[in-house]
Amino acid sequence: MTSWLGRLMSRRIRFGIAALVLYFCLHFLISRTLSLTFWPSSPSLLRKFDQVIVGMATNKATNKTYLATTVSPLATVSNSSPSTMPTLAPGSIRASGLVSSNLSSCPEDPPGLLGDKFTVLTDSSKAPSWLELEQSLPFVRHGGCQPDDCVAKQRVAIIVPYRNRDAHLRLLLLVLHPMLRRQQLNYRIFAIEQSGTTRFNRAMLFNIGFVEAGKIFQPDCFIFHDVDLLPEHDHNIYRCGSKPRHLSAAIDKFGYKLPYETIFGGACSLTSEQFRAVNGFSNVFFGWGGEDDDFRNRVAWPASRYPMSIARYKMIKHNRDTKNDPNPQRVNLINKGRKRWKEDGLSSLQYSLVGVQDRHVVYFITVEIPEAEVLRRAHLS
């Protein structure tokens, strides 16, 4: 009797163990199948997954691995505590993670463009909140998006210098994201924010954006874009060509006419190779004015432009920012720019990286610029 019960209990134990093993195997296979089947088509699940990835990157950033590297050998790096914005480890979120090599290339002329038949808000009081902006742009992740049904011709980074222009940035994002999606671009938008009390240096922020965006996204094409310029026509394609392109040729402030023929400010596009070939922007233009004309002198002229009926922009009205008064030395700096361009630019960047934050609709990259040291190195102080 005892021997029979022992054999019975042994069979039940073996059966139970086998059942448990089978259960866990089936559970793993079903979970794996569901995740592969439904996650790519579910924005809400993808957004939750992104937040987990961002959280992991933020935790890793407490070791300051991101602050330990810069692309420019002359860039200085801060070892102080980062700001309230979390810092991401470089390459922690790959922008091309969902690209399928089985898709064909996107057409040269995107089929879903609207021309000028879309709304452009210029009233800062009507700018959406950050939450409203994110909710209105569910297709945007990590500062941009990419086509679902074709492979974009270029990877495009939009670099926006920024300080104390929160409402203007939100209005710009409200216009840019839907337009760039219609243009079937693989793109990311980077707001390069200058912190601290030194005078604003728009040109150096462009250089910094070029360096830092390259760590995250590895673009082929860069759009250097003012925060207060809103495109009005989506046939103004934000891609790069064989020549540098001046995108914002017709601005409402100037009656949609060129104030002078060689103007190259506002918004322009250059490939990575073109930008490196001219050593980027000058770093010595602190305060307002001069850096665009200096940059034009570096670029092979004439640059290309779309027709004036397409290259149209509205400018958001605003008062000049504090710490951005006209630079009294700008004319002298422009005149001497040809002599120093090889030593003044990407090759001589100096800045401290404060923090990087993925806010879904834009990447914030916050930096401090040591004005006195930059001018001293350039023998201007």
Order of helices and strands: HHHEEHEHEEEEEHHEHHEEH
Number of helices: 10
Rg, rounded, reads 25 Å
Structural class: alpha/beta
End-to-end separation in angstroms reads: 103 Å
CATH H-level superfamily title of the domain at 124-378: Spore Coat Polysaccharide Biosynthesis Protein SpsA, Chain A
Number of strands: 11
**What general outline do the C-alpha atoms trace?**
globular
Q: Could you name the ranges where pLDDT drops below 50 across 5 or more consecutive residues? A: 30-100
CATH topology of the domain at 124-378: Spore Coat Polysaccharide Biosynthesis Protein SpsA, Chain A
Please name the CATH architecture of the domain at 124-378: Alpha-Beta Complex
CATH class of the domain at 124-378: Alpha Beta
The share of residues in extended strands comes to: 5-15%
Helix content: 25-40%
Largest sheet: 8 strands, mixed
